[in-house]
Structures
1.
Amino acid sequence: MVDNTTEKKVDGENGADEAHAYTPGLKVKKATIVDKMRRLPLLGEVYPKVGDMVSYADIVAKTEISGDPEIVKLAMMLGLEPEDCPQFMTKQIGETVEQGERIAFYSALWGLIKKEIKSPATGTIESFSDVTGQLILRGAPIPVEVDAYIPGKVIEIMPREGAVIETNAAFIQGIFGIGGEVHGDIQVVVSDNDQTLVADMITEEHNNKVLISGNMVTLDALKKAVEMGVAAIVSGGVRHDDLTTFTGEEIGVAITGQEEVGLTLIITEGFGMMNMSLRTFELLKEFDGFNASVNGTTQIRAGVLRPEIIIPHDIVEEDGGEGISQGMVPGTPIRIIRQPYFGAIGVVHSLPVELQRLESESAVRVVSIELDGGEVVTVPRANVEIIEE
Amino acid sequence: MATLSKPTEEMQFIIATDVGSTTTKARLFHKKDGEWRFLVAGEAPTTVEAPYEDVTMGVQNAVREIEELTGHKLLAPEGGMIIPYDGEKGVDLYCTTSSAGGGLQMMVSGLIKSMTAESANRAALGAGAIVMDVIARDDGRQTYQKIRRIRSLRPDMILMAGGTDGGASQHVMEIAELIKAAEPKPRLGVSYQLPIVYAGNKELRPQIEELLKEGFALDMVDNIRPVLEQENTEPARRAVHELFMEHVMSHAPGYNNLMKWTEIDIMPTPAGEGMAIQLIANTYKQNVMGVGLGGATTNVYSIVDGRFVRSVSANLGMSYSVTNVMKEAGIENIMRWIPFDLDKEEVAARLMNKMIRPTTIPQTLEDLIVEHSVAREALRLGLKHHRSIATRLKGVQLQRTISDMFEQSVAESYIDMMTMDICAGTGGLLSHAPRRIQSMLILTDAWLTEGITRMMQDSVFMMPHLGVLSTVYRDAAWSVFDKDCLLRLGTSIAAKGQAKFGEPVMEIDITMPNGKVINEQLMLGDLKLIKLGADEEAKVVVRPAKLYDIGAGPGEELEATVQGGVAGLMLDARGRPLYFPEEDSKRKELLLSWFKATDMYDEEALGRLL
């Protein structure tokens, strides 16, 4: 089952952490059970029942939020005291009005002075205040729908709120993304995980596809992808400058998903030129041509939400379980996530208990890692993540 | 006032926690030989979010770590702490602060942006809130824009001010109607009513009640600006605090249980931190500037002539918000603190990578210097924001006509670094800086202290804990604060002014504790560090050059007694504003000379970067 990752900061200064020396990594799973909670922001109606099968676009729940209010300064427009206005209102509280329809009419001096107030919008007259002379006109309710996002079976209904959909799928988490939920067939467009996705590689055939890159995607490729109607791009890295130019603004805080840039982009490793982890790349290659549900939404503060690629399939394979709670032990495969060995992959060699002094002169708990090439390096435990298998 | 398990003078063990947005930090305090001291710390991930959704789990884990380290049993099998201490196990008091799940998020409104809305803003900030937006009649937005904004926000609470008592009424009601029409929804679910505190014109209370009694949990308190000349934020601040407990905390996951565990009210973390800073000011009877430089936010506190003001910059921080510092400050401002060649895109990528993996720490000196550069900018921007909040009451000086009041320009902040006696910092980067001089120089560079300023910092993050403890047991809080928390870094002597590079700024005679007199002559661009221990004092006579001021006026001599610290006495003749050569190579050279003069970093490692 997929749930939120749990992160543990290893703080070496107050000496109380050896029992919990772990940092969970991003999930990269070939076959797992994915549960998705599809929930309304307000109470409403839920359509399916437990056991129903749903498709990507099926609406599972629907509600309405009250329409936008429009404030009409009636007393001011009529030139009257607020308490004198109600007698000149031609529509009463609770009545519906069309845009342009008369809502108040005032006539004085045998008709020499006439003032007609028309409704600025279609809606219902909600209230009138005889203190301020303001009339509140409520617009039509705004429907809010939640679709299934992934195809699968409904396993739980939250009455009036939504449903939980379950499917068997490959599940890959990225480190950062932009853009919301999309669907499309996976297409690997680079030959290797260290190859860059450039504009020339993208054609009309990639319309609605989820393109897989290697170490980076260029700004031109991002622009071309939008032009060609690509649904999403998954890449190892992206340059900070390119992302800023592409989105039109610098990303300040990692709360994303609402960008309207015509494309969902997920990076799996980090900023800069970064080879996509071989395991992630190979897995995506294996599912070339499969349909995937992709979401770039990232929220790093107050509840970690990482971008995701869900590839529903029927292959059932025993997976190694969650593995997070076991933490790091000698032999655990890990990735280094900060300079000077950023991106390097290896296995835990040893976990010294004593604090060690870094080049920065901080004394912290460290992990000794045997890199793929055989070299053994020492880094802070806070600077590694477990590669979940 | 809370009912305590035993009289404070009989207490022996106290545990305090801070439920932060990522980490729950527990601190155990113990009274030994009649003296309260910090004993040990335990930390665990906060469990406010799915799949746990129960903060008490994180609290238990953090406390369990203390149990493991001390062998002292603290947790009761049925949940909560064993209270009171029975000679073997348990504690006599448990208190906690919390900022989990985003802390207390508020929207405030007032009639005029620079008057009642500003007072409401200060009251909300003083209560420890993050202010999401300030709605006012003159905030420059159209009605539909304000409505759209209110609808998109999901605050925990609204504080509504407006009008003096017996003053404006119609316009205040207009804003109340606007808020009602927008139908704001509370952040933590749809099952309860959004609390609104009304602290405006008291004559409007019947109408406000009529308008807002349905759909909101309305509380009415004394006017925040009963008359223009007076700001009365305390009743509103108190109401915000009570509603925070009653509505917000009780709807956050697990807080109902946590509230039962504590004998005293849960306090928002920044409110606890603020109280700790106030403890310094109250004890020394001096003006204090304080800062909590966190991962997500930067809280700045000032106590000037007894007036306490807090500001929070919700998106300035060293991990989650690190790229927002880059966005707000501009990467060039960060780069100016780096004394070696580093590509701009490389710095940006590193900061982006820190943001997406916020718990990583610098391993290399190069990375540490980059983080220290960002910290200076976060602190600088935090102070800038604070200055916009710490202002004199507006609308008071020019009272001849209403139009005068509307036309007056923004009054200047009363924050003047020359009048600040103490600067204190807390937060991970400052508390965990490998060399103590680093936090002293970072604070000095960012805030540009002037005259004679004592510098302090939180040794191990526990200011919020001691702040909440001080509300019921001030003596214990101060004892731990004084002996274990508040690290005396030293004193900075900085001349205000700027003339030509290389020309004299000040001459100082320092009479050291052993009677030896040191004479220092400093030119523009000079920075020197004199060793003076934490328990030592020295007498200084400072003679600034004609264009420089040390606190007695331009060119005027000043005599003072200064305190030492773990870093020492810093003599700063770098100019105010700080002098930076335009030419890049000269900038780097000067920066390096400052680092060398203060022994800021390991010289050999620094040499390898050049």
2.
Amino acid sequence: MTQTTLHDFKDKVCFVGVGDTDYGALYRTKDPKRNQYTLGVEAFKAALEDAGLKKDEIDGLVLVRIPSYQLFADMVGLRYLKAANTFRGEGRMSALAVQYAAMLIYSGLCSTVAVVYGNDGRSVGATYGGEGEGSSPYDVIYGMTSPGAAVAHMWRRYMHEYGAREEHLAAVAISNRRHAGLNPKAVFREPLTLETYLTARYIAAPLRLYDYCLINDGAVALILTGAERARDLRKPPVYLTATATCTDLTFFYTVDDFFRDAVRRCAEAVFAASGLGHKDIQVCQIYDNFTPTVIFGLEGAGFCKYGEGFEFVQNGRISLGGELPVNTSGGHTSESYMQGFGLHAENIRQLRGEAGDRQVPNCQVAMYICPAPICAVHIMTRR
Amino acid sequence: MAYEKPLPQPTAIDAPYWEYLRRHELRLPRCQDCGHIFFPPNKVHCPRCLSDRLEWEKLSGRGRVWSWVVFHQRYFASFANDIPYVVAFIQLEEGPRLMSTLVECGRDEIRCDMPVEVVYDDVTPEFTIPKFRPIR
């Protein structure tokens, strides 16, 4: 058998259903019945409705962050599945879970796969740092903890190497917030001014409050199927045209090239496989657990040179109406922290023309970039 | 007053690292086949060439500040009184990087690539933690 390549995979698998939750409403209320499973079921039901599929047409179940696939499968009454598994609740896993679902379909192991993510971080008081949060014992003796501080180290080094200043990051936080103002489901929608950004407290300096992702409750479900089946369903198919992963695994989350070389390898692979180029990308979602990763992702993917990203993001270039709108739903700092899944949902809605007031006109090609210890890039398209 | 911050958690593999520190020596494993020196010392083989011929090499204790952050958020009750406190990512002269902190140095003085040298903080009778100060 000849080894298959990314070219063979091009446009073979589609996103046909997307469901999520009202993040703002969930943020403003508490409910003791709310947990990762109940949130996941809500998104799963919404995704089925969106796709026009019956529950029993799902034959693969890929969960992320929701700990037990067995418990979840029982909750939604899916007994005889052709695949079921859970991925860890890490942001880098969203693209990987989508890739796994796509491979299940492309290989013939499954026909229609639901990827379900649930997060009750606000209800349970998640902190992403401190005692018992998985920090290295070699680090905690100095009080070092949290991915945010690891990214703060990288941003400090980036500023040193390229002459960027702390206020350059404000453009990313302010652009995200501007987009969230156009998104009825976003948690934080009021405009963010430069003054408010700069006077906010530091968390791990040089990063401030508005550089950090939210901690909120919510869920996202994505349903994927093969391209032929997709054409008969309720909504126009969104093609997973190309996708690639490259790890950057070292002992530390802080890496000396800011994940750019790994992102670059992913971007080169998806551009080559799709036959598309930078000029074709109309909207881009970048995994912004902390605002510097937007700059690292843009440089890695080749939208600008290394060291130019902090200038690239200024003056509205990454806002709606700009040259390359980025994180058009408000991203992780303003819409919701669904660890990459909200960003996938946003690309699907942009490509379908369902993004309402934040719609990129006639959007046909979208990109997802995750700069993290496992980097990934997708190109998603519509016909 | 008792030391309340997190202490090292020696394992069967890295116990010598902490024992050398207690004697005020900074040592890391060095591969006797390819010469690679690595951190953390949590392996019984060289991660570069996979050889298991390792020796504990005494390091110069010199390095530079690759980067640094200041914690304003309280993540650990035992660090609450230190806020805002500095964590520095140190690039050792021999190559490896490790998280640490800076002493004998005001926050306004810290710069990336600033040359530093190790100092040994005997936090308890059992444990010594390596910290760094500017080379003046």
